[in-house]
Amino acid sequence: MIGERYATGSHFTGVFQRVADGWIGSVEELPGANTQGSTLEEARENLKEAIRLVLKANRELARRESPGRDVVRESISVSL
């Protein structure tokens, strides 16, 4: 939903690799969150946006599959 916030304080592991055209980045814990950038800083910022988009898309897909079902949605905090 627009304006809906995701868990605050979430931390992910960004993995960045230098390539001929700049940098590529991915997230160890979140398959599908990938990006690139001309500089490492640009790749970092782009990866943050990729994380937001993947989480939003996953949430929307899950909600499309649950209409009419008896479900409970709640915030869960996990410490590693």
Low-pLDDT residue intervals, each spanning 5 or more residues: 1-7
Number of strands: 3
Q: Quick one: overall form?
A: elongated
Rg, please? 15 Å
Strands ordered across the widest β-sheet = 1-2-3
Mean pLDDT: 88
SSE ordering: EEEH
**Count of alpha/pi helices:** 1
Fraction in helix: 25-40%
Structural class per helix/strand content?
alpha+beta
Largest sheet: 3 strands, antiparallel
| Beta-strand percentage range | 15-25%
End-to-end CA span: 28 Å
Give a verbal description of the structure.
The protein is α+β, with helices and mostly antiparallel strands. It has a domain at 14-62. Helices cover 31% and strands 20% of the residues. The chain is built from 1 helix and 3 strands. It has a 3-stranded antiparallel sheet, with helices on one face. Strand 1 (14-19) and strand 2 form a beta hairpin. The relative contact order is 0.15. Mean pLDDT is 88; it is low at 1-7.
